[in-house]
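Schema walk-through. Below, the input block comes first and the output block second. Nothing else is stored per chain. Lengths vary across the set, and this one has 335 residues.
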Amino acid sequence: MRIQRMRLRLQWYDLTVKYRRGKDMELPDTLSRAQLPVNKPEMEGLECVSMLHFVSVSEQKYSELQNCTREELSCLQRIIRQGWPDHRHDLPNELQPYWDSRSQLVVSDGVVYKGLRIVVPPSMQAHMLKLIHQSHLGIVKSKQRAREVLYWPGMSSVIEQMVKNCGKCADFQNKLPRQPLRPTETPSFPFEEVASDLFEFEGTHYILLVDYYSKFIEVDTLKNLHCRSIIEKLKAQFSRHGIPVILRTDNGPQYAAEEFKVFCQSYGITHRTSSPHTPHSNGEAERAVQTVKKLWAKASDKHLALLDYRTTLLDSVGFSPAQLLMGRRPRNSLP
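--- output ---
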């Protein structure tokens, strides 16, 4: 019957049939044979490598996570491996909060993950909260930092309450309403357009550079406010990230100096200044200065505070300044 059906389909065509040995018919002969067994890779091992690559953890901290998970979440590990019950109420009370996330939970190398986020054992949650809030980034950004790499049931509510109860955050909360932002055209690539400003904090002068594309902030200490010192710091920053097409500044004496004009021309930079009567028109740099001052006023470690800002996701794009600028997620203090 198979041959008859094939002949009916082919009777519309004028074909010349030629015999060829099977070993010479490589493609048709291969397709007609049963597929050979394929050794599938060990998915748990691949998943573990992928997770460890995404979530950078020191050996000491990972060992602590493994030990605490074994002692406190062994029942959860067993259920993930053996299968979940049909109903939430069939779970022990302490595991019922994990019910809604059950399809995303996996066990890898002795640690429980929700997707790519580490499930934190109860005894380590207080320490993680301290790390999440060490730079006092506020409710939204603290949640974003945590949600990128950590998980436990009710984590967002705990973070929100912690920030609300923080005295430092309350002291530095903006009392004035935020001014509407002036729309600007987004640059096409990192460091195409940057803004610079000078500021003083606790008796020390600093120069700030912010990238319009990624919102990445660079801050350097200034020994003095001479134009030459500012040029040298900018050269150092440009050596790390490349020479921008456009540099925006206010109309301060250092940026308005002839020496600075010559520097921009020699580096092929278009220098745009704000009006002397409206220095706030250099808004990107002004906002970045306020961000840095608030971070440093609340944080005990200025460098960690900047790192936390650079590695926290931006609301508008879902990536951190560091990811947008460098194309990678730099290691920070979490987890």
